[in-house]
Amino acid sequence: MTRGIGAVVAVATALALAGCGSSSEGSEDRELTVFAAASLTDTFTELAEEFEKDHPGVKVTISFGGSSDLVAQIEDGAPADVFASADTKNMDELDNLATDPQDFAANTLEIATPPGNPAKITGFQDLAKAGTKVLVCAAEVPCGNATAQMEEETGVDIEPVSEEQSVSDVLAKVTSGDADAGVVYVTDVTAAGDTVTGVEFDEADQVVNTYPISTIDGSDDADLAQEFVDLVLSETGQKVLTDAGFIQP
């Protein structure tokens, strides 16, 4: 009788261990896909690393770009769990696809020039001087829309040599010496370090871009997506953003 009970216990234990083994082997890593405005590259890369440390087995993949381009991709069915826009206008374009937009940061414009500011740009009005090669973002991109608003506010009419699809494209061309100046965000100049010279201008606070973030309807992992949004809104996330030059919305 004792041997029979022992055999049953042994079989049960073996089955339990086998069950645990198959569960572990069958578990899969989780992936979170975030679409974010190009001006968030440094901050969201840092926050993604923080999120992965706090969520073992989770891989955060971020697609950075112009907010309008990202919206078009989401509307076309690109798999995204979270979207962070550089303005409310592009977030609004998603309508019901954005489940609960919340403002998490704000940004203002600044002029970026090649190191040393060889064209001697001193303010926004200098961008309209004849012969000055200026780069701006395209009008549908938040930084481009903000630049157009700034032109209207100041009465300055810029004739850019090129209109780019993101602030990162503007910065890349300025740092390579393709232009005398580019209109980007304060945070982009901060992130670029000594690869550019920043030129602040008094009128900058007249146009402020507010950044909203939202989970996307149809996300494969809505709970995980919300946890990433919560990190961005948390004290930790806000400190990362503030340290990068963002202001409170």
Automatic annotation (TrEMBL):
Keyword Membrane: yes
Superkingdom field: Bacteria
GO terms under cellular component: plasma membrane
Keywords assigned: Cell membrane, Membrane, Metal-binding, Molybdenum, Signal, Transport, Tungsten
InterPro entries membership: ModA (IPR005950), ModA/WtpA (IPR050682)
Single Gene Ontology BP annotation: molybdate ion transport
Predominant location: membrane
Gene Ontology molecular function terms on file: metal ion binding; molybdate ion binding
Membrane topology per record: Lipid-anchor
Cellular compartment(s): Cell membrane
Family annotation (SUPFAM superfamilies): Periplasmic binding protein-like II
Binding-site residues for molybdate, renumbered to this chain: S39, S67, V167, Y185
Quaternary structure annotation from Swiss-Prot or TrEMBL: The complex is composed of two ATP-binding proteins (ModC), two transmembrane proteins (ModB) and a solute-binding protein (ModA).
Protein's job: Involved in the transport of molybdenum into the cell. Part of the binding-protein-dependent transport system ModABCD.
Family classification: Belongs to the bacterial solute-binding protein ModA family.
Protein name: Molybdate-binding protein ModA
